[in-house]
Structures are given as C-alpha cells and as structure tokens.
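Subject: mismatched residue count in predicted assembly?

I count 1196 residues in my input, but I want to confirm that the predicted structure covers every chain. Input:
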Amino acid sequence: MSARETTTELQHVHFDATEPRTFRHGTVVAGVPWKSPIGTAAGTYNLDACSVYYNPAILGAVSTKGVSPVPWEGNPAPRTAETPAGTVNSVGLQNPGVDHYLEDDLPRLKAMGATVVSNVAGHSDDDFAEVVEKLAKSEADMLEINVSCPNVKSGTSVGKDPVALCTLLKRLRPLTDKPLIIKLTPNVDDVVPIARAAIENGADAVSLINTFVGMRIDTHTGRPILANVTGGVSGPAVHPMAVAMVYKIRQAFHDFPIIAMGGTFSGDDALEFLYAGANAVEVGSAALVDPAAPVRIATELDELLDSRPELADALAVGKNWIHVQD
Amino acid sequence: MSARETTTELQHVHFDATEPRTFRHGTVVAGVPWKSPIGTAAGTYNLDACSVYYNPAILGAVSTKGVSPVPWEGNPAPRTAETPAGTVNSVGLQNPGVDHYLEDDLPRLKAMGATVVSNVAGHSDDDFAEVVEKLAKSEADMLEINVSCPNVKSGTSVGKDPVALCTLLKRLRPLTDKPLIIKLTPNVDDVVPIARAAIENGADAVSLINTFVGMRIDTHTGRPILANVTGGVSGPAVHPMAVAMVYKIRQAFHDFPIIAMGGTFSGDDALEFLYAGANAVEVGSAALVDPAAPVRIATELDELLDSRPELADALAVGKNWIHVQD
Amino acid sequence: MSCARTFLQTNPEGRAYLPSRRTVEIVGHELLTESIVQLTVRDEYIAQHAQAAQFANLYSSNSLQISPRPFGVAEVHDDEVTFLFAVVGRGTEEFRDKQVGDTIDILGPLGKSFDLSEPGRYLLVGGGLGIPPIAHAAQKLSGRSDVQATALLGYRDVHFADEMLMRHCSDVRAIENEQGNVITLLDQWLAEQDGDARNLSDVHILTCGPHPMMKAVASWAFKRDVKAQMNLEERMGCGYGTCVVCITPTIHGNQKVCIEGPVFTREELGWE
Amino acid sequence: MSCARTFLQTNPEGRAYLPSRRTVEIVGHELLTESIVQLTVRDEYIAQHAQAAQFANLYSSNSLQISPRPFGVAEVHDDEVTFLFAVVGRGTEEFRDKQVGDTIDILGPLGKSFDLSEPGRYLLVGGGLGIPPIAHAAQKLSGRSDVQATALLGYRDVHFADEMLMRHCSDVRAIENEQGNVITLLDQWLAEQDGDARNLSDVHILTCGPHPMMKAVASWAFKRDVKAQMNLEERMGCGYGTCVVCITPTIHGNQKVCIEGPVFTREELGWE
Ligand SMILES: Cc1cc2nc3c(=O)[nH]c(=O)nc-3n(C[C@H](O)[C@H](O)[C@H](O)COP(=O)(O)OP(=O)(O)OC[C@H]3O[C@@H](n4cnc5c(N)ncnc54)[C@H](O)[C@@H]3O)c2cc1C
Ligand SMILES: Cc1cc2nc3c(=O)[nH]c(=O)nc-3n(C[C@H](O)[C@H](O)[C@H](O)COP(=O)(O)OP(=O)(O)OC[C@H]3O[C@@H](n4cnc5c(N)ncnc54)[C@H](O)[C@@H]3O)c2cc1C
Ligand SMILES: Cc1cc2nc3c(=O)[nH]c(=O)nc-3n(C[C@H](O)[C@H](O)[C@H](O)COP(=O)(O)O)c2cc1C
Ligand SMILES: Cc1cc2nc3c(=O)[nH]c(=O)nc-3n(C[C@H](O)[C@H](O)[C@H](O)COP(=O)(O)O)c2cc1C
Ligand code: FES
Ligand code: FES
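Triage response: the counts match. Full output below for your records.
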C-alpha cells in the first residue's frame, strides 16, 4: 500500500487534535448550544482514555457511556469481531453505575467545559427512572435514553414498541426538565412510528442509529467469534441505512431535533447526515480506530460548512435541512 | 496499490470461469439437488449478460430476476449509488413479464442444463398468484416469492406481516407442487416470526436477506443520488447482519431449508453462512463487479468443504449445520 | 487468464466466452491537465476487440469501493489501450495517483459500438470527457476511403485531446466555452458546405458529451433530418447487462445503457 | 504530527497529550520463518516512551478492515521500534507483504508495562508469539546491576527470537514443543538453584504466551509463592481504553486488558 492512498482514505494522518481550536459553525439541539455539530457517540468516549488525545470541551457534545442504577459487568469476552467496513460488538453496557458517574466522570467533564449528553441504560422502566431521577439533579446538559441496545436482555424491547415507549416516556418526562433524547434502534420494521411515539410523548429529540444485530463465525472452528454469539454492527457499513432513517424521520417531522450517528468517518459523511435532516452528528466507531477522529471530523465539517452558508445558518439557530421532494 | 494486496482481496483475478468444471460438494434444498451450494441471487443474473462468462449449469442454481404478470418499467435513473463496501440500488423490479420469461429465459436456461429458481414479483396477492400459476406448469425447479423488495410500492408489506404472509401462502400453496421459497426482508423487528409464518403455512424454504433500506446524498448538491431517493443496500457491508438472521432462524427451526445471501464475496463468506445454518448460498453483488464471481466462489467453497467432511456430508443429503449453544 | 483460450471456447448456446474481470498493467500514465489523466494499460483482448464507443470498467483497488468505473476506450495501439478521464471523485482520484508499473482491474470491452458501416461524411461531435469515444471512432474511420471524417470538439478550456484526434483525422475543429460550443461548430461546418454537399443525407453525426449538449446536437440533427448516434452516460451497477441499473427511456421502453447502448440513435431515444 | 509539541501540551486536567494515530515509515522488514515477520518502523515517540510489555496498534491500509491489530513492542533502537508477529489472518498477511519504504499507521505506546521496579531475579517466561514483550523486558533490564535475568522461551519449532533475547540477556534457555515446554524450563531452573537461592522471595516471573501456558506458569508460581506478572491477550476494539471491549475477569471485576492491562499480577487475576 502506498502512501498515496493514505491521503484519500486516512485523513487523520498528521492531524494534530491537541492544538487548541474553536469551530466557526455550531448547532443547537433541543435548546442546547453545541460548539460544533459533531459530538462523540455513547460507548465510544471514555474520559480517561480520550481526554489525553484532545480537549472534549471543543466538541459539540460528549455522549458518555450508558450508565445503569448499579454497576454492570457486561458480556464475556471476546466482545468484538471485525466485519466488512465495520465491527460487531457485544459489550453489553458494562459500566460502573450512575453513582460513580455522578461523582467522577460527569463533574470532571463539566469542569473541563464539555457539553455532556448522559446516556442512560436500563433493563426496565424502573432502571431508567432511577437513573434519570439521579441525573436530573446533576450538571448533565442532556439525557439520552438508550432503548436500543441489542446486547442486553430486553435491550430493544421498548425501542421496538411505540406503546412501551409511550409508557416509559410518561414515566420519565415528569422526572426532569433536562432535554430527553430517545436513542432509536435500526432493527425495526419502520423507524417512523417509533420516532412518532417519542415525539408525541414528551421527548425533546431522537438520536439514531444504534447498532444493527450481526454476528461473525470463525470459519476455522465453525463457531461464533463473540462469546455472546450476536452483537451490534457499527461503522461505515451502516452509514447508508442510517442516512435513510434520518431522512425518513425528517420527512415525517420537519422540526424535531435529530442527532445522527452510524459510520461517520469524515466531515463529508457528517454533511450527508445534515442534508438528510439531522441537527447534529455523533462519531462512534471512527473514534475507536483513531482517538482524534471526532476532532478531525469536526474540523473537516467546519470547512465544508463555510461553503454552505444556508445550511450552516439554519443549524446555528437550531433548524435543520428539509428536502422538498419533487 | 500494489499487486500484492490484489491477491488477498481480489481473488477473481486470473480466474478462468470458462473452464469446464464440476464441483465435488453439492447440496439439496427442499428436495432439489444443487451441484454446488452456490447459486446466483435474483436480480443479479441475466441470461444474455452472464452466460458468455460461464456455463450456468455448473452452479447449484440460478435465481432469475423477479418476474411480474406484465412487464414493469421500474424506477427512473439513476438507480445505483456506491456505499461503503456495498451499493444501494433502486431498480424497482424492471422486468419483461412472466410470459416473456416462459418463452425465452427459462427454456434457454433449462436447455443449458441449469437448475432454475424462478423469482416472482408482485404488487399484490393477485399478482403473485397469477405468476405462480403460470410458472407451476413450467420447467422451473423452484419458485421464490419476493415479498421483500424495498424498491416497489407495497414491496415489503407482506414480508413484514406474518398474517399477510399467511394469507398469501394459503393462496399460493395450492397452485403448485414446486418447492416454494419465501424471500425475507432484513428490515424487520425480528425475522423469526416471519420465517415461522412461512414455515407453518406451506413454504418449502426461506431465502434471505433481501436488501436493507438505505440512501446516499450527493454532498455537492445536497440532493439524494437515487432518483427514487431510497434504495436497497447489498454487498459485503450487510454480511454480518445476514449471518445473524440465518443463525437465528436456524436456532428456531433446526430442519427447515434456508438459502442465504448478502455480501458473499468469497468461499469463506459462503462457508460462514453454512456454519450459521444455511443449506445453500446465493451470490448477488459480487457478480455485479465480476461476472465470474459465482464460479470463483463455488470453486473456493468446494475446496474449503474438502477439509470439512462433516459439514459437506450433511449438505449432500439436504441437512444443515446446527450450533448447539453452550 | 489466457484470452486466446477463452475466446476459443463457446457457451452451450454457441456464443463465444468472454474474459471476465482481470488485472492488467499500467504502461502509460500522464496528467494532461490538472484534472485530466491519460491512462494506458496493456490488455490484448480489449486492444483486439474494442469497437468505437465501446467502454471498459475499471475498478478501485480499495475494497470499500466496489462499483465499476466505466470509461470509453479512446485509442488503441498494438496491445495497449488508452483512456482519458477527468478526476471527479474517489475512484478517479485513486486512478490519477497510480503510476506506470502499477496494476488495475478491468472488464471489457463492453457495450454496443457506433455504427460505422455506412460510407459518407461523419461528423464526430465530442464535448469534454465525451471526447474519448469520439477519438476512438476517428481512429476506426481513419484510412477508410469511403468516408470523410470531421471532428468537432467542445472544451471547457484546455484542449486536452486535439493532439490525439489529429493523429486520426485531418479535419479537427475545436472550440472552448468562451467562444461557443459544438453547435457553433456544426453551424460553421454547415455554412461551408455548398453544391451537392448541402444534401445531408450521407451525413452521420456521432456524438458524446454532456446530456444537454447531446440534446442540442440531436435537435440540430432532427431539424435537418441528419442521422445521429448518441453515446449516453449513466450510473452503472455492473456495466455488462446483468443488473438493469443503467437504464434510459427509449421508444422501446427503458433500455440498458451498458449493453443495449451506450450508443442509441436519435430515433431510438425519441430526441427531437 | 510533531511529537515534541504534542508532548509539551497538557489537557485541562494537566495530563500530557499523547499523539494520536499517525503514519510511519517501515525501515526494517524480514521474514524470520515462513510465517513470522520482524517489522521495524521509525517512530520517535514510541521509541522514547515505550515501557516493557507496552504495545502498539497497527492498522490495515485496507479500509474494509478497520479494527486495530495490537502487537507488543519487542525491541527499540534509537528512534526505531521492532515488532515480531505471526501471520495468522488478513491484517498480518497484509503486513507481511509490506516492504521497507512503505508506510503503516500506528498508535501507541499503549497499556500498562511490566513492573520492573524491584531488584531481584527475573524469570522472563515467553511462549511463541508471547516472546516479543519478554524480549523488550529483557532489553529494559539489561545493564541493571540490581537484577539478574533469565529468559525461558518455549517455541513450537523454529527458535525465531533467541538471537534477539541474547542481545539483552546472558542466560537464555529455549525449548521446543517436542522436548517440553516452559514449565520444563522452570523446573530445570529451580533444580539448579541451591543454598540461599532456593528462597524464591526475590524472584519475579514475567510471562506472556498462550493462555494455557500462562495459566500453567501462574499455577507453578502459586505453588511456590513466587510473584508473577502475566501479559494477557484479548480481542480489542480500540486498544486505548475507550470501548470496554477487551475485558478479562479479575478479582476487581471485569477489567480492560488494553489499559488496565495487558499486565496483571497473578493475584489480580486470581489465578492459582
Ligand atoms: C459508458 C460510459 C463511458 C464513460 N467514459 C468516460 C470517459 O471516457 N472519461 C471520463 O472522464 N469519464 C467517463 N465516464 C464517466 C466516468 O465513469 C465517471 O466520471 C467515473 O465513474 C467517476 O468515478 P469516481 O469514482 O471518480 O466518482 P465517484 O462520484 O466517487 O463515483 C461513485 C460512483 O458513481 C459512479 N459515477 C459517478 N459519476 C458518474 C458518471 N458521470 N457516469 C457514470 N457513473 C458515474 C462511479 O462509477 C462510481 O460507481 C463514462 C461513463 C459511462 C457510463
Ligand atoms: C496486547 C497484545 C499484544 C500482542 N502482541 C503480539 C505480538 O507481539 N506478536 C504477535 O504475533 N501477535 C501479537 N498479538 C496478537 C495479534 O494482535 C493478532 O495475531 C493479530 O491482531 C491478528 O491480526 P490478523 O488481521 O492477521 O488476524 P484476523 O483474524 O484477520 O483479525 C481479525 C480481528 O481479530 C483480531 N484478532 C485476531 N486474533 C487476535 C488475537 N490473538 N489477539 C487479539 N486480537 C486478535 C485482530 O486484531 C483483528 O481486529 C497481540 C495481541 C494483544 C492483544
Ligand atoms: C463499543 C461500542 C459501545 C457502545 N456503547 C453504547 C452505549 O453504551 N449506549 C448507546 O446508546 N450506544 C452505544 N453504542 C452505539 C454507538 O453510540 C452508535 O450509536 C453506533 O456505534 C453507531 O455509530 P458508529 O457507526 O459511528 O459507531 C456503542 C457502540 C460501540 C461500537
Ligand atoms: C441490482 C439488484 C437487483 C436485485 N433484484 C432482485 C429481484 O429482482 N428479486 C429479489 O428477490 N432480489 C433482488 N435483489 C436482491 C438480491 O437477490 C440479494 O438478496 C441481495 O442483493 C443481497 O445479496 P448480495 O449482498 O450478495 O447482493 C437485487 C439486488 C441487486 C443488487
Ligand atoms: S449497469 Fe448493470 S445492466 Fe447496465
Ligand atoms: S480495546 Fe477498547 S477498551 Fe480495551
């Protein structure tokens, strides 16, 4: 492989994320200003691991790993396998619990100046309510309810059922004034009715997509690679599906905030989401293979938005792009 | 890019598909013997275009383009866009109609000695019934009912609804003694109930996956690339999702024939499907980027099966692999 | 893959087998302008069989990008095949960055050719990156005593293909955007004709270029009842006729540009 | 990226910024056996900072394959960093086919190192492709007057790393499968000890190799109450601690191999 190809595909090379920087183009999501339309996606930003590569305060927001009422151990290893242009993971929401998060990660992130989206994990409505109640009194800027994890038992049952989602939201909404984001799964017949349930029952935004159910088998042994057998596929492979889902929700609801994610590896990928109708974009897998990727992508997008003033101006005041279908 | 990498990734290079060959390992699908577990996937094999690259009779089977009661013009162009490790297409089942198929493609394929899976397209139960009735009297070896096309109106409504699928099968089953395959969509909450509806209502096999809904936006213009806005994603990108769905159906139904497709680009990819529980594998997108791909893949798989006698012996008598979960 | 052997075999219906996708060597690589590349590969099979306006698929070496990149054959010498292309996206960027000695995957020749069977006056009307197949047509016509060829070329700015055309055609006229377009050249050409030459029944227009240009050429031809063959461009899924992705509306319904085209007559397209 | 500048900056909490993924040049590339490659890259930052048993991620140049490939640093000279790896899959096949002068993407150094702070006798027990970090430990210990190092190496067949170890360690003992394994070597070593040397309280085992081997070494150490540090291997999603993919059960619960390891003490793992 020559160095030449590298310049097309791996633009992170020679990119210095540690240089102090501010972006010209920001966005507003459910009333919360983001310094860039780019944030990090839940489960791919760990404070200790990432903050030595760049300052999280320069990004639009940092979505943190899902926290549950008590610490969770997650699934056994191996928890990842490579897939074409992606990976499949089965972490299963291992996390040290909401109390640890409130004492450690959250105050440290806020002290750094970061805008924080606190991702919430749960096995049941009770779990979600308990965590939301605790986060309600915290410094978190937004709460993101993960009803779409394919790696925990009953992880997506609420996220696939508009009625169950309605029940959950009726329970959570009174618990907090903070913006509530519902994180949607792509593993559904149609994402629009689920988004509608979120929108009509008090959510302030939706975020999508979480991962697609997938698996890999080791053909030497004939056995699944993941100890959990199946996992969630993310990365460039899922980008076109994510764009379609964002677009469909935007066509159905012209004004509701959407945070998009799924395979964003470049500023151009992010721009595609913004044209599809997203108000902001989060970077997940790209950060796993290059810690500085969110900053690189935010920098690339900032430049691309310079020549798209209409889109940039809309985002700056919390509006989004709508394609009028011919 | 050096020639070296080519040898890892693009094994079709210097592969002569026109050499006469027979495979050591075959399979049996719903009673129909296939000379290899590898066939072509519907919509990616056109007789005139492909038969000048290899003899279709050497493959397990040839799934032909979906045919409808009358000729269909499909969607406007552009109908394809590239996606990471895949493409998204919006052909919309353009085809010359079942009568042309019965007069031209089918007899020619049978004269060549090919095993033929006739793929059936329709907007309604009436459409499907009309085509199945005509094919029932033909030389077709198997009929595959496409209730999973994301590119035509009401293309997937039956494929997402177990009740509608049951109604359709009750209608089709009496019309023919030929094996009926139901082609499943991956755009569902859960593929198992749909497979169950097929299995319990007289289908002889299921095939999966059809394409995932996806789209691309041209970031220079901000507009969708496909004239139809959305299309169906296929190619390596979807392989891990397809493997998971095949595996889930196999875990639920240990003995029912499954034909797998989705991103098979090598013999190893096909082997993964067989270990997941498929009885046969069809090649779609790979054939679009190398006409000889199905033959190359069949040749690679044949060699891989030499060292997996247990799997090969099972397939030879119409059985499949089942993982006993620990 | 041995092309010779492949070509000797036939399928069960007696049609000759064609070589499938293969890896070939790059033997020439030149930047004609900042964004236009002339690429030459060694492929005996295409060199021997390509007809005017036939094209070949080139493929990215990056497995993320699986789709074919179709390019018209521009010129053939011995076993070498030359393409001319503009750098517009990821695939063409990658091809620009290749070097002599590198390899590239290829499939072809593909598609229907211009019909050059009749004698008469041929007007080869090319615009921008539509010029390559026009150049190939000129090469195929050159040396024929029963035809008279005139190349009418429209450029945005740099005249990147004049030289290539002049190797095959004694009458090459080119224009750039600032001065006009190929219609200007067609009008000028027409004005020069006198006497019997004003009867255009022996004139054949072969054209390739941007859609609006070809539409304008078709309309020019229609008004004067001149025969015209148009070489279309469409996004392709396979390039060899198997996927029905690359259609264009014709009077016979949607037809595949890659195998029923890329050449269509004005009448087939119903362009007036 | 300028490592120097990066290293001078600190994050809002005062921790030094680290260089992110970058492209480096391959300056050495050698096949030690048919399937074992010695790869040397120029990376000043890793060369200066890597501690024994730290590792680096290498990345495929093929965008289909995004996952990191972690490899232990085996040896460092000036600004050059050497890895030893077995060709087992797509990524390592690609790396085998690279050449001096090519580039490769890298991130590191990553992970926790062996604790070499105490004086005493170090037994460096490596098996197969677990030998690279053992070699690096030997390099780090070499020249220290307060320690005495013995390398005990187990190979399947070819002794691909004896030479490297002997550069840093005067006492290198190796065995191949046919003759026994590292436990055989440990037993032999123990049998040689007499007098005060039979008191093993100053002995530190550092080990890396296949899981069953390390388990056996841990059990050997447990029975004799010898301190042991194990260098684990696990599939990784990121390699720098952000994704919680690479866990191993410990007495403190699941811990990340990439950042809380790859080195764990026998006690932390609860291996007996
Ligand atoms: C029959 C035919 C002959 C052609 N001959 C020439 C030629 O001689 N010289 C030349 O410069 N160009 C020619 N083109 C256009 C050329 O194929 C595209 O410019 C090229 O594929 C762009 O590839 P990319 O990867 O750089 O662009 P990207 O935009 O990155 O490509 C993404 C996908 O879209 C397809 N695509 C993008 N633009 C076009 C287009 N205009 N036409 C068809 N597919 C497109 C690509 O093939 C690829 O599959 C021809 C097209 C056709 C259909
Ligand atoms: C901390 C650490 C240090 C290592 N040091 C060395 C070393 O010095 N020398 C050496 O030969 N090997 C070492 N390994 C193992 C090495 O990482 C794998 O052999 C290599 O990643 C295989 O890559 P592949 O693309 O050829 O294999 P593939 O099977 O094609 O890889 C697919 C994916 O699985 C991962 N994977 C496959 N096998 C392993 C494995 N055994 N451990 C972790 N991930 C794996 C790959 O990284 C990749 O993401 C180390 C592993 C770890 C975790
Ligand atoms: C290792 C890993 C862990 C994840 N953990 C979470 C999580 O805790 N909560 C959540 O809502 N999503 C989680 N996700 C999903 C991502 O936030 C994101 O939605 C998904 O990966 C798609 O984006 P990407 O393709 O950019 O990675 C995780 C993804 C990965 C790869
Ligand atoms: C261009 C194109 C046309 C297709 N047409 C049909 C069709 O007519 N009927 C059908 O059941 N599936 C059709 N499919 C779906 C394929 O048969 C297959 O299920 C899907 O592409 C996944 O396999 P792959 O990744 O190997 O392509 C089509 C796919 C493509 C790419
Ligand atoms: S591109 Fe596939 S039929 Fe023309
Ligand atoms: S590999 Fe990501 S935390 Fe260890």
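The pocket of FE2/S2 (inorganic) cluster (ligand 5) is lined by residues C 236-239, 241-246, 256, 258 (CB under 6 Å). Marking this ticket as 'not a bug'.
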